Each structure stands twice: as C-alpha cells, then as structure tokens.
From TrEMBL:
Subcellular compartments: Cell membrane
Protein name in UniProt: MFS family permease
Transmembrane parts of this sequence: 33-56, 77-95, 101-121, 142-164, 176-195, 230-252, 264-283, 295-314, 320-347, 359-381, 387-405
Name of one Pfam family that matches: MFS_1
Alphabetically ordered keywords of this record: Cell membrane, Membrane, Transmembrane, Transmembrane helix, Transport
Length: 418
C-alpha cells in the first residue's frame, strides 16, 4: 500500500509540475516572450488566455483517458498520460519565440498547452483511483488525497525551479533561462515511469473485468445515468479552482506589477504550496471521520469570508503582503481539496468511475482555474478589486449550495454505488 500511495503521489507531482509550471511562466514570462509589444494589459490577458486553453482541454482529456481507464485499466492509461505530458512540456521549452518565427510561436504554444491539458485530464482520475480503490473503506479519503497532494507538491517544485532561474540576469532569463524548468521534465518523467510501472492494477477494476459485464460507453453512462451527480460535483469543485486561479496565478502577476520583487513572490508562492500539503492530509483524514461534505463546506465558507482580506494583501505591492495572501488562500484551498478526490469517486459506480470522476474534476478546474486569471484581470480593469471580491463570494455561495445537494459518500460501499 505504501508503494501504491507513493506512486499516486509522485506520478501526480510530476504531471502537475509540468502543467502548473506553465501557469507560473504565463504569469511572469510569456507576455514578454510571446506577446511582446501588445501592451501590458493586453499581453497579460493573452498570456492567461493560452493558460486557459490547457484547462479547456482537460475535460476532453478526462473523457478520452477516462474511457480507456474504465475499459482497459487505470495503470496503463496513467503511463500514456505521463509520456504525453512530458513530450509536450519539453517541446514548450524548445519553442522559438515570436521574434524568431512570428505568429507561429503563440499558435504552437497554444497547441502544446492543449496537449498538456489532454494529458493532465487523464492523470488525476487514474492516480486518485489507484489509491482509493486499493484502500480499506475507512481510509478512502486519506488514500485519494495522495493524488491531490501531487498538485501542490508539483507547484512547489515548479515554482522553486523558476525562482532559481529568475536569479539570472533579466535578459538571460527571458532569452533562455525560462526554458530550463521545461526541459527538466524529461528527467522527472523518466523517474515517474519507473515507479508507475511497478504498481498493480486496482482490485475493484480486476473484479469488474472478471465479471465480463457488458456495458455501454462510460461517457454515455455518466451523461445519461448520473447527470445530476456530475453537474453538482462540477459546481462544487469550481470553488477550489476559483481560489487557485486567483491566488496562485492572477495574484502573482498583480503583485509583480504592483512592485513586489519577482523572485520573492515566487518563493512565497512555493512556500504556500508546501503549506497546502499538510492541510490536504489533515482535511482528508478528517473527512474519513466526519464526512466529505462538512469538511468541504467549512472550507468554502472560510474562503468566502477571506476574499477581501486576501485581495487587499495581494494589492500591497510587497512580498510579505503577497505571502500572506497566497499562504491563506492555499491553506483554505487545501481544506476543500483534501476530501475532493474521494468526494468525486463516491459519486459514480466502478465501471464508469474513472470517466465520471475525471469529468467532474477536470471540468471544475476548467471553469474555476482555467478562466479565472483572465476574468480576474478583466474585472479589476472594469470595476477594481471590490468587483472581483464580490464575484468571488458569489462563486463560493453557488458552490456551497451545490455541495449541500449531493449525497454524503463516506460510508457508501463502492461496489454497490449505481
């Protein structure tokens, strides 16, 4: 079981290192490298727009990889998703700039970002289920959280690597230094594949295969037999990613533009992601005791109350102000995120669980984090921080209402769902 959980964590860490590395680069690099000359506001919006393209591809990746994960097994699909992500990330690191090849550069950047989105769309669901479907009933939330911990751990590693590269002279960093973190993906993926290939298929999937049950397409079954669970899970999940998009992407760009030191901001972001990891563990274990919904709802209420304090801290133009904002934001995100893997898995039967959980998670990430940075930039231009704060609170109110309409899954028998 330790090897299984380690595989879930390390594989997720590597995939999210690649995927979230792009978010950091979009906040501080790509507007100067691929959208230079467009004006600061337009360049930032365009850069965040390419970021959103990857998030838009995540539900598609969840449906594609989820289909094969429900038909062929969790393990094999995870290997393919990791290789796909590694190749796309490495190619971004080798991509010529707009100054070198013109408009083709941002076009290729978007295409590679879409491939990243497809790959990570298949990663989380499989990594989460490898842990959850091996775990005893009373520890499913804890086991599923190892895939969730991979995201902040990957963000920490990616941010620290980019932060180290920002110590180069500015011209060198914008010329070639920013490429180093992307090229390092080759080494990380190689290590991840060795670990992942040693993990056995989950017993629940093997049992399903042994029954030789005739079944429809998993995607069709999710959409026709469980549309309510899918919709409510997506809306509830947007809370996590609305928070992530604002405090870990938009706020980075806003703080640097307000005068905060770039390296200090990145170090604060890395520290905040590290803080999120133990919060995820504690909230996941708590959800095994009291339920997924109470823990997630408490995080949502706290995050709504913290909206304006976080925005005020991010607007101070100091590293310490940004650090306060991002640490508080990531900690609250961890409270919601810890039980979220088990919450989504317990909405769907085994024969369509990979597809259903992946669609829930990835669509929520697209609606929440994918478009939030660009929307936040537009809201601040149109109405300032008060307007952004109001939209933030409204988003959490809607997510909380959706959560209350779902069924608690902590004590449900996974083999009896559906």
């Amino acid at each position: 079981m330790r090897r299984i959980l380690a595989s879930s964590f390390i594989g997720s860490l590597i995939e999210y290192y690649d995927f979230l590395l792009y978010a950091t680069a979009a906040a501080i690099v790509f507007q100067d490298v691929f959208f230079a000359g467009a004006g600061a506001g337009v360049a930032a919006f365009a850069s965040f727009g390419t970021l959103a393209a990857g998030y838009a591809a995540r539900p598609v990746g969840g449906a594609i990889f989820g289909h094969f994960g429900d038909r062929l097994g969790r393990k094999n699909v995870l290997v393919v998703s990791m290789v796909t992500m590694g190749v796309a990330t490495c190619l971004i690191g080798l991509l010529p700039t707009t100054a070198q090849i013109g408009f083709a550069a941002p076009v290729l950047l978007v295409l590679l970002r879409v491939v990243q989105g497809l790959a990570v769309g298949g990663e989380w669901g499989g990594a989460m289920l490898v842990g959850l479907e091996h775990a005893p009933g009373g520890r499913r939330g804890f086991a599923a959280s190892f895939a969730n911990m991979g995201a902040p751990a990957g963000a920490t590693l990616a941010t620290l690597v980019v932060s180290a590269c920002t110590l180069l002279p500015e011209d060198d960093f914008l010329s070639w230094g920013w490429r180093i973190p992307f090229l390092l993906s080759v080494a990380l993926v190689s290590v991840g594949l060795v670990i992942r290939l040693k993990v056995a298929e989950t017993p629940l999937f093997q049992e399903l295969q042994d029954t030789a049950e005739k079944r429809r397409l998993p995607l069709v079954e999710v959409l026709t037999r469980h549309p309510r669970n899918l919709a409510l899970g997506i809306v509830a999940g947007t809370s996590v990613y609305t928070l992530a998009g604002i405090v870990t992407v938009w706020a980075v760009s806003h703080a640097v533009d307000a005068g905060a030191d770039k390296t200090g901001v990145l170090n604060a972001k890395a520290a905040a992601a590290a803080v999120m990891i133990p919060v995820v563990i504690v909230s996941a274990r708590l959800s095994d005791r009291v339920g997924r919904r109470p823990v997630m709802l408490a995080g949502m209420v706290a995050a709504a109350l913290a909206a304006y304090p976080i925005l005020w801290l991010a607007d101070t133009g100091s590293v310490w102000g940004f650090a306060g904002a991002v640490v508080l934001g990531q900690a609250l995100q961890g409270v919601i995120f810890g039980p979220f893997g088990a919450f989504t898995a317990e909405l769907f039967p085994t024969r369509m669980r990979y597809t259903g959980a992946s669609l829930t998670y990835q669509t929520a990430s697209t609606l929440g984090a994918g478009f939030t940075p660009a929307i936040a930039s537009a809201l601040v231009v149109g109405g300032g921080l008060p307007l952004l704060g109001g939209v933030w609170v409204l988003a959490f109110a809607v997510a909380g209402a959706a959560l209350l309409l779902t069924r608690e899954g902590r004590t449900r028998d996974l083999t009896a769902i559906g």
